[in-house]
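Example record

The entry below shows one chain as it appears in the dataset: sequence first, then structure tokens.
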Amino acid sequence: MSTAEFPDVSVMDEVFDLHALLQPDEIEWAMKARTFAQTHIRPVIEDDFDKKYFRKELIPLIAEQGFLGMHLKGYGCAGASAVSYGLVCLETEAVDSGWRTFISVMGSLAMSAIYKYGTEEQKNYWLPQMAKGEKLGCFGLTEPQGGSDPANMLTTATKVGDTWVINGAKRWIGLATLADLAIIWAMTEDGVRGFIVPTDTPGFKATAIDGKLSMRASIQCEIELDNVTLPADAILPNAKGLSGPFGCLNEARYGIIWGAMGAARACLDAVITRSKDREVFGKPIGSFQLTQAKLADMTLEYEKGVLLALHIGRQKDAGTLNIAQISVGKLNSVREALKIAREARTILGGDGITGEFPVMRHMANLESVRTYEGTDEIHQLVIGRALTGLNAFS
């Protein structure tokens, strides 16, 4: 399959022939995602970011592509490979982190929670509707006081007769004001448990967080839970303890490993094109040794990041992926993508801070990606624990 058939071919396709390492079905998913993202999101994303607008009218079109819960099998989901899902994350984040986050919140978090830990009744009811984009979900784990310490959870779920009563608060929850259901994690007398909470339940309130300088074309929210009363069967029976939410977080972290490299590629494409078009001192800036050295170093880190993502994806498909490798990938991809974005900005000069180029938008978004699903420090400690066998978290 020739990439010449598709719009806005990346310079990286020629310098780094990733497709030579992929299977035909994986290339098909990547090109489907690239075509969609470049056709429907890229032309409007700068304006949406500027106006803080989440273009929810694209959701049915995204669902039609099969991207929602695409790595899950059955229940109306595509059953694609982990590598295919990663490639979709890469191509989507190449236009904006917010839209990769949408796919992740739906598939890796909300849908995965039901898929991994729910009953057959819960799966059969919710997952086909979510795969079609008819029902939207969010994932309520992070709390205002907790951040990287979910064990310090203050949200509680109390059994009262045949019902559960939930009280507490969550923060930085994607899609919550649009969601039809929320996966809420709460402390019970048996430890942390997960619940499917329809968002029209009395006592559930979601409020979008304003004033963001990052992820402006997407929605993150605060959730208040005031005596939210649920039937007994709202609980996810197969999730007990923090291993439940962490099992979903690792799915989301996996998508970030690929997605951040998409943002890096977009920055590279922008500055490579600019380096050939802009002239100073009578010749293109790309002809100067210092510029070429910067481009070479950025390309080196991009290729290494994608190869690491592919290696981790192959491990995931083989069922051999461990938690430490997920942390290696997430830590490396986001950290290096940010370095690439910052170096790319220097090549663009003053124009690099404008919306004429996507670099500052990607840079701002990546600051959020660096924080959510585990900060750098959290992943460093996960890797350190794997290397030494010693727990430095407490």
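Notes for this example: The two ends are 51 Å apart (CA to CA). The chain has a mean pLDDT of 95.
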